[in-house]
Write a structure and sequence with these properties.
Blueprint lengths: L1 E10 L1 H10 L1 H4 L3 E13 L9 E14 L7 E11 L2 E11 L2 E10 L7 E11 L2 H6 L2 H10 L2 E12 L4 E14 L8 E8 L1
Antiparallel strand pairs: 1-2, 2-3, 3-4, 4-5, 5-6, 6-7, 7-8, 8-9, 9-10
Length: 196
């Protein structure tokens, strides 16, 4: 049996550089720093056909994640993470994306490729601005160019996977919206609405 407990362990740029040098595909162009508290316990009988049993609990605070695919860095990240041989849970992941607020929960039951999965994601106060535009894939940029939207959006996404089928349920809300179209003579403004 092996157990470990740690407090205020800092994930620093130096640690990330060490990981990137040994596993370049793990982080790619992303950078992550933060502070972790947690404990880990591993048991193994060393008998034929047995697998290690492990339990781990971690708490992340003061996290910051940067990736060129994001419009802005994710800052003030915090969450609780429970992980064992039956799966993983991320509870109450919270963070800021500029002025936007993000909340996420995730549960994966098992470690196989088709393990059941459930995720809830909420985003609020996301500005439709040039930084967001720059992070979008080309197919979405084509539609953006047609309508030139501005405003503030938010919404929720519930995503589940039962081992065979994905089931997404999404709600998108907007306020202070403005856009243009070749179907209207003037730019429309002061819009709001909800799409489900």
């Amino acid at each position: 049996q092996l157990s470990a407990e740690f407090e205020q362990f800092e994930i620093t740029p130096a640690i990330q550089a060490w990981i990137s040098a040994r596993a370049p595909s793990m982080l790619g162009q992303s950078t992550f720093v933060g502070r972790v508290d947690g404990k880990l316990s591993v048991e193994h009988e060393f008998e034929a056909g047995t697998l290690p049993q492990f339990v781990s609990q971690f708490r992340l605070t003061e996290g910051r994640f940067e990736d060129p695919r994001l419009p802005r860095p994710l800052t003030r990240l915090s969450c609780d993470l429970d992980c064992d041989q039956t799966g993983v849970k991320i509870k109450e992941l919270r963070g800021n994306l500029g002025s936007a607020k993000l909340v996420m929960q995730l549960e994966r039951r098992g470690w196989t490729a088709n393990a059941p999965f459930a995720m809830g994601l909420s985003l609020e106060n996301v500005p439709l601005d040039p930084q967001l535009y720059a992070s979008l894939p080309a197919i979405v940029k084509d539609q953006w160019d047609k309508y030139q939207p501005t405003g503030i959006v938010g919404g929720e996404l519930q995503l589940t996977f039962d081992g065979k089928n994905w089931r997404p349920v999404a709600t998108l809300r907007g306020r202070e919206l403005a856009f243009e179209s070749d179907k209207f003579r003037y730019r429309l403004s002061d819009g709001s609405g909800t799409i489900r």
